[in-house]
Structures are given as structure tokens and as C-alpha cells.
Amino acid sequence: MLPRHRRHGRSLLPMLRTLSTAATLAASCPPPHPIPSPDAVCPGDTDPASLPADDAIAALPSLADSAGSAAALSLFRRLAARPDLRHLMRLYATAATTFVPRGNLPMAHEAMRTMVTAFAEAGRLKEAADMVLEMRSHGLPLRVETANWVLRVGLQHPACFPLAREVFDGMTRSGGVRPDERSFRALVLGCCREERFKEADALLATMWQQGFCLDNATCTVVVRAFCQQGRFKDVSELFRRMSEMGTPPNMVNYTAWIDGLCKKGYVKQAFHVLEEMVGKGLKPNVYTHTSLIHGLCKIGWMERAFRLFLKLVKSSSYKPNVHTYTVMIGGYCKEGKLARAEMLLGRMVEQGLAPNTNTYTTLIDGHCKGGSFGHAFELMNKMKLEGFLPNIYTYNAIIDGFCRKGQIQEAYKVLRTATSQGLHLDKVTYTILITAHCKQGHIMYALELFNKMEENGCHPDIGTYTTIIAAYCQQRQMEQSQKLFDKCLAIGLVPTKETYTLMIAGYCKVGKSTSALRMFERMVQHGCLPDSITYGALISGLCKESRLEEARALYESMLDKHLVPCDVTRVTLAFEYSMKEKISIAVSMLDRLDKRQQAHTADALVRKLSAADNLDAASLFLKSVLDKHYTVDHVTYTSFINSCYNSNRYALASEISEKISKRISNFQKKDATAIA
């Protein structure tokens, strides 16, 4: 049992005992006089709900005696609406102990639910939850409906999530009731909203085991959570389970999946999901198509996006809405095709759709990115005339535009205009300015903004932290970078791939590849998958410290994971092996590459070795490559032979020329044989 509620240093238990005893006596002992009428309880025309607080509450059991529990419940509802009584525990305790001895448990539970709602509003949900449990000792058993009510109300208030979780966990342990399907659904929703994805996974697993199924509304939230984490295969498994349990996914569920895929740039997969959806007899709506259009715009496939948009325009079932037009306008703005974006805005108005603040902000953002600030301000004035006030997102677009052009002072002028209109800086505003200062090397200004951000209750996200970390890494201040990184972990932020990669590259830059390796291991352990950039930074760092075997092991691991090393990574590692006269290893690095990558790597390496005046290593590598019949560019041969002549290495130039001539001759013979 949770600890009994105490308020002002007094336990509620004596109060409950007094109220319970009085109510029991009133219900069990016959009155010495006839049952009084309502007028006898409240003489004359006095309304009990208008009495002073103490008298109004005391009227509840009396009215229950004289007019019945229904009349008392009606009075309770009116009293609970009074501001001076709504948050008074004694009202709810009196009501519950009035109804319980009369056998009206549903009414008592209603009193408890009303109390939970009222106290949650006042930030006192813990007190209400304690009282619900306390009432068990006064004859009111805990019901799953009431426990679920505490759960749902608690989950509506983010600060109350720990208490909601405690109520759920305590249902079986101390409440004598078992969580039902609705209990699980409510907590799954709460976990997803709070981004407690591991807890949500555990709850879902328990649900399946107990034969409970998600409803479609909860499914949509879970799908969005999975997509946010990139767990698209889990969405497919979720849909399979729901279908098996008799609640197949609906059109909204599929649209959430399509939208999640498009936001991550997996547009082809989104169209495959669309086919699956249609195959199950579900018709996509305007929101489904808008998500697909957004995805196509995101990856730059504007022609396909426009074709799909036209399909909506011509459809007799549904037409593009304001959001659809805004998405298309945003796509054209991203490509710098502002004339087309303006044309769509005009078309939108012709169709009777009024552009909203988001539409104007999208277009303003496009003009600012293109440097057309005059046009952006004209649009802002136009939206004001049409009754749409610019919001902080609108101003952010202009501030970002100036910052991208390096005009920070102009950005601050716009910021002052925004704040003079009562707008508050948000996370995006701070991050834009912090990024701009970091790019210009003004890390002290960036830190000042960072601290102001926290002071003003606008908590930096991992993106903001990553920006500051990047600035420190750029300035080789790895101790400061590490402190910020550790702070991220301490406050529960999850470092991204970019955060880890910056830290790894930073440590490699200052010659601390051991620290970089530790960071890499931590990255993998925390489920953040490194990409080719991460591997490349670490391999380059290890090469600088001549830790070639470790670098090569990472290179092989990278290929095993089907990651494609960039030219710099391949050449750097092969160059270091060549300089140490380990040509066979350098050549073997080409074996797992395709022909194009082999040619690029061989060409770049020969040129780099020649530029380093190591013609012997370059010739050995070139001979080995030719022996393996790998393709080498003609320009590379010419460059190498010219380097030999410049260094008076005529014999070496002659040797390589002869080898090349023989190879060409062999190819010509093969071609002649093939023709014959």
C-alpha cells in the first residue's frame, strides 16, 4: 500500500474513521423521528449547494438520509464544481463514506474519479491516488475502472508519469486488481509520448502474452514511435499480430507507417506499403497522398511529386488540402524554384483554399534561403494584411536566412522585432543563433546563448548540444567536448550518430585514437550504428598513429556491414601500407571493391605516392595492380611516367611503359581472337 496521505501534518485516517462511523450509524440506526424532508435539512428555500463550505459538505449525509443517495450525488456534483470546494479532500471523503455504507459503490467510485481529476489539475495527483487506496480500508474496494482513471489522468500530465507507472505496477501487487486491456493501452500511449520506448516494448510483449490487443488509435501512436526509431520491420510485425488477434490495421495506421517512412527518406518502401494497403482493400486518402508527396519532395523527386499532386487535383474523391499545397510549395522552395512555388500559392487561392501561417512561413523560408529578403518581408506584410500573424517559426525562417549569409547583426534586428511583439525564443531560434556563432568561431557568444536558453526554461536538445560539441572539437578542446557529451548522458539525452562521429573525429584530430576507439565502442554498445563517415574518421586517426592493423580490421568490418568506404578512407589506409613497403596488403584492399572503386583507388594512390616522391612504392603498387588485371586510368600512367622523368628515373619509366605496352598488346590479341 502507498503511504497514507498527510496534509498540514494530520493524517486523513482519523477523519475517514469519523466520517465512516457517522455515515454507518446514519444508515443502520432508525431515526427517532420521521425522515426529514429536504426542506427540513435546509430550512426554507436555502439551496444546500450555496451554504458555506463546512455546512454544504455536512449536508451530504443528511440529504442522503432524507432524499436518497441520488439526491446526495446530485448535490455532490454541484459542490465539486465550486472553486472553493473542488480541491478540498474532505468533500470527496465525505461523499465516498456517505455512499459506501448505503451500498452505492458506483457513486462512491464516481466521487473518487472526480477527486482524481480535480487534484491532478492542481498538481496533487499523488494525494488523490493515496486516498483512492486508503478508501479500501473503509469498504470501497479498488476497481480496475477507478485505477485506470488514475492512470489516464496521470498520463495527461507529463510530470505525473512516474506516479501513473507506480499505480499500474501496484494494481496486482497491492491493489487486488489486475490491469486490463485499457490499462495497458493507456500506459503504452504514455510511454510513447514520453519516448520511453524500452518500457513500451516490454508492455507490448506482456500484452501479447496475456492475449490483449491494441486498438487502432493506440496502434497509430506506437507506429509513429517505431518509425521515429527507424524500426520499420517492427511495424510490419505489429500489423501481423493485430490482424491475427482480430483487430487489423486500418487506413490511419497504414498512413502513419507511410508518413514515418517518408520522413526518414525511405520513399520507395513507402510506396510498397501503399501497395500492401490497397491490396487489403483500404483506400488511401488525401493525408496518405500528402505524406507521399512530402517524401518525394524531401528526396528531390519533384516531378514525381507533382504528378501525384495532379492526381489529387483531378480526383473526384478527394482534393489537395492546405497542407498538401504547403508541402509542394516547400518542395519547390527547397530546390530554389521560387517562381513555381509562387504559382502554386496563386493556384491554391483560386481553388478557394486560404493560405495559412505555415504556408506563408514555408514560402518566406524559401526566399530567405535564396537571399531574397525583400520579397520575404513583403510576404510577411501580406500575411498580416490577410489576418495571419507571423509566429516564431516565421521569424526563425528569416533569422536563419540572415545567419546562413553570415549577417548575424541583421538576424538580431529581426529577433528584437519578434520579441517586441510578445513572441518568445524557442529551441530552434536559440539553435540557429548558436550554430551561426559557432561557424564564425564565436564560441563564447554561443555558450552565453546556450546558458540563457537553459535559464529561460527552453531546454537544449541533442541537436543544440551537438552544435556546441562540434565547435569545441573544431578548436581541439576535447576536454570541454567530453564534459558536454557526459552532460547529455546525465540529463537523459541520447547522442546521435553525428554526435558520436564528431567526438571520434575530434579525438583523432588531437592524436588520441585510444579515446576515439572507446567512444566508438560506446556508440555501438548503445545501439547507434556507425556509418562510413564514422569509420573513415576513426581509420584515418589510427593511420596517423601507425596503428595499421587496427585500422585494417575496422576497414574489413566496415565492408562486412556493406558500408562503402569513401575514396579518402581507402587511399589513406593503402597509402600508409605502401609507405611501409607492405604493397601486397595495399593491393589486397582493392579485392572487395567494384571496378569503378578499384580504378579510383588505384589512380589516387599512385598519384599520392608519386607526389610524396616515393616512386618505388608507386611502381610496385602499379605493377601489382597490372598483374591482377585491375583497371588503371591512362592519366594515371602518364602522371606516373612524367614523375619518373622529372626525378631522372628513366629506367623505371621505361619498365612501366613496357609493362603497359604488353598489357595493351595482350588485350588487342584477345579482341582479335574474339572477332575471329
Estimated structural class: mainly alpha
Apparent shape: elongated
Number of strands: 2
How far apart are the first and last residues' alpha carbons, in Å?
Answer: 94 Å
Oligomer: single chain
Q: In what range is the share of β-strand residues?
A: under 5%
Strand order of the largest sheet: 1-2
What summary fits the major beta sheet? Answer: 2 strands, antiparallel
Helix content: over 70%
Mean pLDDT: 85
> How many H/I helices?
37
What is the compact description of this entry?
This protein has helices spanning 12-28, 38-41, 53-67, 69-80, 89-99, 105-121, 125-134, 144-155, 161-173, 181-193, 197-209, 216-228, 232-244, 251-263, 267-279, 286-298, 302-314, 322-334, 338-350, 357-369, 373-385, 392-404, 408-420, 427-439, 443-455, 462-474, 478-490, 497-509, 513-525, 532-544, 548-560, 567-579, 583-588, 595-611, 615-627, 634-646, 650-675; strands at 6-7, 10-11.
Lay out the secondary structure.
Elements: E1 6-7, E2 10-11, H1 12-28, H2 38-41, H3 53-67, H4 69-80, H5 89-99, H6 105-121, H7 125-134, H8 144-155, H9 161-173, H10 181-193, H11 197-209, H12 216-228, H13 232-244, H14 251-263, H15 267-279, H16 286-298, H17 302-314, H18 322-334, H19 338-350, H20 357-369, H21 373-385, H22 392-404, H23 408-420, H24 427-439, H25 443-455, H26 462-474, H27 478-490, H28 497-509, H29 513-525, H30 532-544, H31 548-560, H32 567-579, H33 583-588, H34 595-611, H35 615-627, H36 634-646, H37 650-675
Antiparallel strand pairs: 1-2
PPR repeats: 108-142, 180-214, 215-249, 250-284, 285-320, 321-355, 356-390, 391-425, 426-460, 461-495, 496-530, 531-565
Signal peptide: 1-28
InterPro entries: PPR_rpt, TPR-like_helical_dom_sf
